[in-house]
Structure formats: structure tokens, C-alpha cells
Amino acid sequence: MSARRKFLYAFVSSLAVLAALPAAHGAPVSVRKPKGKVAASHAPKPRVHAVVAASESLAVTANRNTSHGMEQTITRKALETFVPGTSVLQVLSATTPGVSFASDDPFGLDTWANTFYIRGYTQSQLGITLDGIPLGDGQFINASGLDINQAVIQDNIGHVNMSQGGGALDVMSITNLGGALQYYTLDPRDRMGGDVSQTFGSNGTYRTFARFESGVLNRTGTKFSAAYARTDAGKWKGAGDQFEQQANFKVVQPLGTRGKVSGYFNYSEFDQYNYSDLSLEIIHKLGQRVDYYYPDYATAYKAALGQFPAGYDRLSDPEDASYYDGAQLQRNYLTGITTQYDLTDRLHFTNVLYDHQSGGDYEWTNPYVTSPSGAPMIQQVGHTAVTRLGATAALQYEIGNHTLHSGVWYEHVGYSWAQRYYSQPVLGQGAPRSGTGPYDDPFATAYAMQFNTNTFQYYLEDSYRILQNLRAHAGFKSMLTTTAGGASYNNPTYTGQDTLPNGSLTTAGAFLPHVSLNWTFLGRNELFFDFAKNLRAYTYNTWQSGNAWGVNEMPTNLKPETSYNYEVGYRYNAKRLTVLVNLYHIDYRNRLATITVGSLVNAHNTYINVGNMDMWGADAGVTVRPLPGLEVFNSFSYNKSTYGRDVTSDGVTYPVAGKLEAGYPQWMYKANASYAFGDARLNFNVNYMSKRYISYVNDAAVSGYWLATLSANYRFRHIPHLETLEFNLGVYNLFNQQYVGGIGGYSMSGDTQQLFAGAPRQIFGSLHARF
User: Fold this and answer.
1) Which end of the chain has less neighbouring CB within 10 Å, N or C?
2) Over the range 636-671, which residues count as b (16 or more CB within 10 Å of their CB) and which as e?
3) Is the distance from CB of 577 to CB of 624 less than 8 angstroms?
4) Taking Cα atoms as reference points, which of 184, 86, 98, 93 lies closest to residue 135?
5) How large is the C-alpha radius of gyration of the chain?
6) Domain residues for 10?
7) What's the CA dihedral at 229, 4, 414, 422 to 10 degrees?
8) What CA–CA distance (Å, rounded) separates 163 from 65?
9) What is the strand order of the sheet 60-65 is part of?
10) Which CATH number goes with the domain that contains 175?
11) What is the DSSP string of 46-98?
12) Contact criterion met (CB below 8 Å) for 289 and 759
């Protein structure tokens, strides 16, 4: 089915289902907001809120949720202090302790280069949902999920709840080892209107966002919003565009005064020329601005013949630094329907149905294979397709001092990957292929894989108010996940193997407990404890080129990753001062180390069990509000994560035991100063990240760095026909720091060519009008 047909099919289907809802509940109802218990019951869970009695200029608040650990809430106002369209992952990193994010572009939208951690866990090891829809593994070329930047327009995110401890039982995920991110989109407004914003900036950046609000349409309370965003930006080095466009639609239908149904359809298209992978050697000898040769086909052609540009001969492997281009094209469709209904005053029901379709083309110019035309290189493209269908259902029942929660989740995932080769022309005899496609005439398929995954998950928990100031939570979840599949096609000429494996993997965890306590004393003081056992299902890897993952061998050689998360903390909150201290320990068992070997276009990942990993860490944050409108936030984070045993790979034993975790900094410092005066607001943010190791034996590392951003906003009022008009000026990398941002992979020892240079100073200005 074509992309256009998929778009129309999903869009019309969602509208057809939603259009029938008012008829099914057609009794006229008041459109006023329900009061009292009915309105409150629509929240995901009852919480003990620690209210921050101050301005929301920083707008990162913390509240104790006995089923989520200490939960941070990032509001819409915090997101708006950054340049419109900035990745929410970048905002989380800038404003919350223990979170690390790095990329190669100022918006943080390049999934190829992004690196995101919470307390040593990567994005693929967290539990992530959007309006209750599980997002699964949001990594690059993900086989079972969707990155948040591709799932929704940033301007439509209302708030984010982040748990840094053991996650939460009701966050449906098979990858969650620790930590949870729950994203919630804005509901349509009751009054007709809209938003329009325009951003201009460095490298020819041009971003447009528009949202229309229908307002309440009828006596039953129906309302909807439709939004569109388009970003077109040049790369800060090299050539090529990074183009993205997204469309979001959301409709809300009240069900009398007892509930509502929300339907949403999200579409995204990402067409990006990537930045080239670097190594420490390349950076030291050629600098950070080395990139793909595109659009200089002649230089790339000669390099494939062994004739390299000046300076490349100083590299140990100049051919692996000489690629014509690399790019990605993605299409994503996410449709969901959420029903929230109060069956009684004490019994509340929530149900989510969702469908996710994705397709992508990921290409590199490969100088190691000759085209049928005689050209010394080919265009190598990985074609992917993802289909996810799932449903969740949950009940909440309140009796006495107890609030009981129970829920189930089922998901089916179909995933395919095919590696195909396309011919490049002989120099001077035709237009070369580039990242724009089309890809409809391959001369060979190297291999193809296909997998199907079925997941079932159940949870049960009780939040118990022992005393007015003492609460406890206890519960567990059960998980069963089976993946079956493997190679569906193999060409030994290109893979070098007679056969590629097929098989199945099953991950089962019958009892994964979560327990926590929360004690509030002396009015403004709070102590809490949290424990959770988590299990991560086996996942298949799509990075193979020839050496597809040996699924038949995995059950005997490896075990599923398991974590035991312990957290204790203290919090003090007053009008002028907020203090938060967390201490945590994680017993991480059967840690799977991913070792990347081979060239960029022929990378092989090997999974090795490095035994247990010990994580010890602390996060501390202080927010002071000395004057009206002024808020200053400082935080420190420390983490010591060490591997448990030495590793033998290809007959070589590496002294990994006791070495620090690759990719995650041991120290982080963050500061944010925000001052609001009338309709003007100024925000300064600075982050320090210590060095990060890029090898498991810790003999290679990228240096630590400081990264600062500055933004200024002014809101104009009393403009005819406009509710507000706001101007925003933002400066990314204020002090023009040179640094390595994202890290795409790690070696057992020594250098690796999967580093991405961070963007230099970038300046953006935007106008936002609301009517």
C-alpha cells in the first residue's frame, strides 16, 4: 500500500469510528467541566502533590506518586522556554538531574545520532508511553516502537511525567529496566481559535507550525484540534537538507458527565541527510567538520578507487572515512482511541486501542562493492516496515484507604528488514544516486529478515493510605513475550554465509514486584523509598549486514537482562526553596554489551553477557526563588556503574571487570536561571557532562564539555484579533563549544567510528500568535 493510501486509510478509519461515538451516547449533556470526584477520577492515578508555590518559569516540579517513585513533571511552560520544535528529550536533559542527552543537531531530532540516558539506562531500556500508547524501543531503526520526536509534534505535548527510579507498573513496556516517561498531548480547547508560529535561524532553518481549535461543536461537547508542522533546515556542516513534516489530529467526545473518548491520528515524515560518523582519530587529524563527500561525486568516486583527498592518507583506514552520502527517509502513522469512563463513583475504567505503521529507507554509499555499471561503489539501502497493533485496559477501584489498580496489555508486532543494493553510474555517465531515492530498481538483495512478536502483560497494585501522612504502594506485573522469525532471504555472494538463522525467543517474568513508601512530616518535608524488579525482553537487532543475529543460539548463550532498582530520597518544598536528594543503587544482572565491529556500511553487532553490573548514584537539586519572577535551579548528579566480569570475544579476553559503563558520564552539573518581568522572560541554561568512555575497557573516551543556551521571550498583548503575540530568540551552544555529542556504538577496546560532532553556535528567532 502506498504512503498516501496508508495515510488516507488510517485517517478516514479513525474519523469513522469517532463519528459514531456521539450517536452511541447521544443523550444531551452539559458541556461544562464536571466537578468533584467525577472530574478527578480521570487522572491516571491519585497522587500526593507537593505543590511548588512559585512561578513556573522553570516549570519542572516534583511530586511523590507512590506507584511511580519520585516523579518529575515537565510542563508546557518549561517546553516553551526553548526554541519551538526542540526535542523534548533535550528539554528533559537540560532541566532534570540524572538525565543525559546528546546529538549532532541543535533541535535534537536526528535519531541517527541521538544518545539519551536516565541513570545509566538508554532510551531502549525505559518505559515510554504517549497518551497511554506504548512507544516501545525508540532507538534508530527501531523494530518495535517509535521515537517521541516522530510520534507527535513537540508543540502539542502538554506535559511529561518522568520517573527515574524503577518505572511504573502501569507503563506498558517490555524494554523497561528502570525509569519511565509518560507523554500527554494537549486536549482541544473549548473555544474556537488556533496557534501559528514561524521560526527562522542558522543554516537556513525554516520551521512553520499551525494548529486549529474547533471549540465545542454541539450539545454533547464534541471538539477537535488539527495541527501541522514543517521544518526545513540545512546541515551545519556538509551538504543536504534535514526535512521533517508532521500532522496531528485529536478529537474529544464527552460521554455524558462520566467520561470521555479521545481519538488521535499522528503522521510524520522525516527525510534527512545524515552527518558522517567520526572517530577520535578522524577528529584529531582532520577536525570535526569532516563529513560525507555529497554532492561531490567525483571525489567520492576517486576515493573508492583509493585516491583520497589531502590529509586522508594520515588515517589508519581512509576508505572507511570516505563515503559519498548517508540519509534516512521515514514515514510513520500512529492512530489511537482512548476511553475513560466512571462505571461507578468508585470504579473507573480506561481503555486504549492503537495502530502504528512505519516504513523507512536507510541508505549509505558503499565503496566496498562494485556496481554492475562498473562504478567502484553502490548505494546500499535498508528497507524497513513495522506494524504494531495493541490494546490496554485498566480498572481503578477505591475502597476505604485503598486504591486498587489492575490492567492488561496485548501487542502484536510485525517487522521486516531487507538490505538491497542499487547501482551507481560510472563517473560522467549519468546522475548519481543520493539520499532522495527513489529505490525501485535494485540489482541485488543481500539478505532479508522478518519477525513477529506477541506480548502479554498484566499488573496489579494497591496504593494504601496508612496514615494521613504515610502512604504505601505494593504491586507486581507479569510479562510474556515471544519473538519468532529470522532470515527470509540470503544471498551468500554478499553475506558470505550459506544460511542465516531462524528461530524463536521467549521472555517470561511471572512476578516482577514494585514496592514504595512515602512519609510527609513537619509540613514541608518528605522521605520516600522505592524498590522495583524489572525484566527486559529479548529484542532483535537490525544492524546486521551479513551476520544476522543468531536467534537460535541466544537462549543458550545469553539470559534476559534483569534489574533490581533501589531508591531513597528526601524532599523539602517551600515558597522560596525546594531541595531534592535521591540516592539509588541498581543491581543490573546479565548486562548485554553490544560490540560494534566492521565498517560503517558493514557493521556487525555482537551481544556479550558481561555479568552483573553495579550502579551507585546520587542526584541532588536545589531551586531558590529569592525575588518575584526569579528562579535559580542547580543540580548535581553522580553515577558509578561498573561491569561485573571480563569478556572473551573472538578468542581475546578483555579486562572489562570493574570498568565504568561506556557512554554515560560519571558527573553532571546543570544550572538554569529564569527571570520573568511582566511580559518579558529571560532563561539561561548550562549543562556540564564529564568524559564518556567509548570502549568497554575504558582505554578511549570523549572529553567532557559545557553546553549553554540562552533564550528571551516577550509577549505582546492587546493586539486586535489576537489573544497573544510572542517573540522568542534562542541561542544554542552560546559559547561555541566544540564537543562530541551522540555516540552510536562502542568497541571492546580502542577507538570507534560512531561519534557525532555537536553543532556549533546556532541562533533562532520565532514569532508565535494565538487567536
Assistant:
1) N
2) bbbbebbbbeebebeeeebebeebbbbbbbbebebe
3) yes
4) 184
5) 26
6) 3-423+434-770
7) -100
8) 9
9) 60-65, 69-75, 157-163, 180-185, 127-130, 133-134
10) 2.40.170.20
11) --B-----S--SS-EEEEEETTTEEEEEEEHHHHTTSPTT--HHHHHHHHSTT
12) no
- Within 8 A by CB and 6+ apart from 733, the residues are 106, 707, 708, 709, 758, 759, 760, 761, 762
Asked whether residue 508 is assigned to any structural domain, the reply reads: yes
Cα(111)–Cα(759) distance, integer angstroms: 15
Coil vs helix vs strand at 466? strand
- Strand-pairing partners, residue 160, are 74, 183
726 within some domain: yes
Question: Which residue is associated with the grid cell 504502594?
Answer: 473
Cell numbers for 148, please give them.
517521541
Q: Are the beta carbons of 360 and 328 closer than 8 angstroms? A: yes
Tell me the one-letter amino acid at 325. D
What is residue 634's predicted lDDT score, i.e. its pLDDT?
96
> Does 125 map to a domain?
yes
Backbone angles phi, psi at 312, to 5 degrees: -70, -25
Q: Nearest to residue 166, comparing CAs of 579, 585, 590? A: 585
- Long-range interactions of 642-647: CB distance < 8 A, separation 24+: 642/613, 642/614, 643/591, 643/593, 643/610, 643/611, 643/613, 643/696, 644/591, 644/610, 644/611, 644/612, 644/613, 644/614, 645/610, 645/611, 645/612, 647/593, 647/608, 647/610, 647/696, 647/748
* Mean pLDDT, the chain cut into blocks of 10 residues (771 residues total): 44 38 34 33 34 36 50 86 89 90 90 90 91 88 87 95 87 91 96 96 95 97 97 94 95 96 96 93 95 96 95 92 93 97 97 96 92 95 95 97 97 94 95 84 93 95 95 96 89 83 86 95 93 87 39 54 94 93 93 64 62 92 94 96 85 90 95 94 95 95 96 91 93 96 89 93 96 92
| CA neighbor of 602 nearest in space, from 305, 369, 283 | 369
Classify residue 134 as exposed, middle or buried by CB count within 10 Å of its CB (0-12, 13-18, 19+): buried
Measuring CA to CA, which residue among 140, 147, 166, 2 is closest to residue 69? 166
Amino acid symbol at 37:
K
Q: Which among 249, 233, 230 is positioned nearest to 241, based on CA atoms?
A: 233
Structural domain includes residue 429: no
Q: How many domains does the chain have?
A: 1
Residue 195 in grid coordinates: 496557534
Q: Three-class SS string for 619-685?
A: EEEEEECCCCCEEEEEEEEEEEEECCCCEEECCEEECCCCCECCCCCCEEEEEEEEEEECCEEEEEE
In whole angstroms, how far apart are CA 647 and each of 514, 544, 591? 32, 21, 12
Residue 26, burial from CB neighbour count under 10 angstroms (0-12, 13-18, 19+): exposed
Phi-psi region of 23 (alpha: psi -120 to 50; beta: other; left: phi over 0): alpha
Helix (H) or strand (E) holding 556: helix 554-557
What span, in angstroms and rounded, lies between the C-alpha atoms of 756 and 288? 9
Is 374 within 8 Å of 426 (Cβ atoms)? Answer: yes
Is the sign of the CA dihedral 70, 171, 555, 496 positive or negative?
negative
**Close Cβ partners of 385 (under 8 Å, ≥ 6 residues apart):** 358, 359, 414, 415, 416
